[in-house]
Design a protein that fits this description.
Two copies of one chain form a homodimer. Helix content of chain A is 34%, strand content 26%. A five-stranded antiparallel β-sheet of chain A has the order 10-1-2-11-12, with helices on one face. A five-stranded antiparallel β-sheet of chain A has the order 5-6-7-8-9, covered by helices on one side. The radius of gyration of chain A is 19 Å and the shape is globular.
Chain lengths: 244, 244
């Protein structure tokens, strides 16, 4: 299983992906599900992947190899908008599934899905979700976050606390708390977490790898758990009339 | 959609069910998904339902009508153990699906699932989950809660805060917080919540209906939201080296 999260805010983007891939409990590996295209002066493009690992790796690797190449239809270095980038990712996903799907079907689901985000000079930073069908939707201030993979456990903390004008550092904190909830409830989502914060118009991005023993991650989880236990304890008990 | 939760603790049981049934957004009704069998001196039996409403109502109503009747195979008044009760519910579910399934299939999933809990004199209180297949599993101190329906949004708060020796009032509070998380993240789970706390060996139970304007529910949600926002705010920001 996988959990990938993308958050779109006026200040920029926060992206986070887990690293666990498993085909049964005895075959668990660590993979990277957040891929940054070669940065350029006028573009930062990130692709987060969920679903069949062979399919998503085929899509992402093909697009890496086509980057800056003569293959105009696949070259993300030439795309003029992030909308065009999302379209190219969706088309490449369709090609891969058409080519491999019928061979893979007997063993499992051949499809995948993506979060595609970043900024191309001349337009604001943007965030898209590419569905297994290759079509896609875009995040907006009304839907400031998109998720793929194991999305439900980590959604309540975002629904409650993420506001459309949240600063990037607060959003990064909430992203990690959303992963903490997911990892506690689903063993198939696991560390390290690849975390990327992109500040609008900076055209520079680095991916932070948060390992299990990372001091900030450890302290954040500890402080949240302790604080939540104290909060629950402090809440009023049910009325006596309920006879609980 | 539906969310039903059953919690098994040394002090007794806490059960909670939402009340929304929908077949598309334009056909939303309120139904009861927590059914208490007629109480007796030596037994309290509760059945919580999720899935196809016609199927689950057929199962529960059949068992109500057979209660104390000559129909020995279905009479929960004569069952000697809660294990036997869970088996009768599973068998009745199979009968209903065998009878109706092929007619219902073209319109949707004909199956359902149940939480079956309570106490019969001579043994402790118990909690079972009856699957769509009619087979079932039992809760234990190692798995103190079982869920059916829309289970994921409300699981993190329980995974974090519910301990195997939690008192009943604390468990009722956590059950409502688990529903709050679910209702915020999924519109198809809705109030009122039917809440029942059963104290072990009391052989008496009442179902509390928690409406949207219930003062305790309102205050609990408000205090939790405010407290959580303050907690998140108080947590350390990501290290400066991360460049967020």
């Amino acid at each position: 299983m996988t959990y990938c999260l993308g958050i779109l805010l006026p200040q920029g983007l926060v992206l986070a992906s887990d690293s666990r891939s498993n085909a049964g409990v005895d075959q668990v590996v660590r993979v990277s599900k957040l891929s940054l295209m070669p940065p350029g002066k006028d573009r930062v493009i990130a692709i987060q992947s969920a679903g069949n690992l062979a399919t998503t790796q085929a899509v992402v690797t093909t697009l890496h190899e086509a980057f800056g190449s003569p293959d105009a239809a696949r070259d993300l270095a030439r795309a003029k908008t992030m909308f065009e980038v999302a379209g190219i990712v969706g088309t490449q996903l369709r090609s891969t599934v058409v080519a491999d799907g019928k061979f893979v079907d007997p063993y499992g689901d051949p499809t995948g899905s993506f979060l595609v985000s970043g900024q191309i000079g001349g337009e604001p930073h943007r965030l898209f979700q590419v569905y297994a069908a290759g079509n896609f939707v875009e995040a907006s201030p009304r839907t400031p976050f998109l998720q793929i993979g194991e999305t439900k456990y980590g959604k309540p903390i975002l629904d409650r606390s993420l506001t459309p004008h949240c600063p990037l550092d607060e959003a990064a904190k909430l992203a990690l708390l959303s992963f903490d909830a997911t990892i506690r409830s689903n063993l198939s989502v696991g560390l390290p977490i690849d975390l990327m914060a992109y500040r609008a118009d900076s055209f520079a991005a680095t991916v932070i790898t948060v390992e299990d023993d990372d001091p900030y991650w450890t302290e954040l989880r500890r402080a949240y758990s302790t604080g939540l236990a104290a909060l629950v304890e402090s809440l009023p008990d049910p009325p006596a009339a309920w006879g609980v």
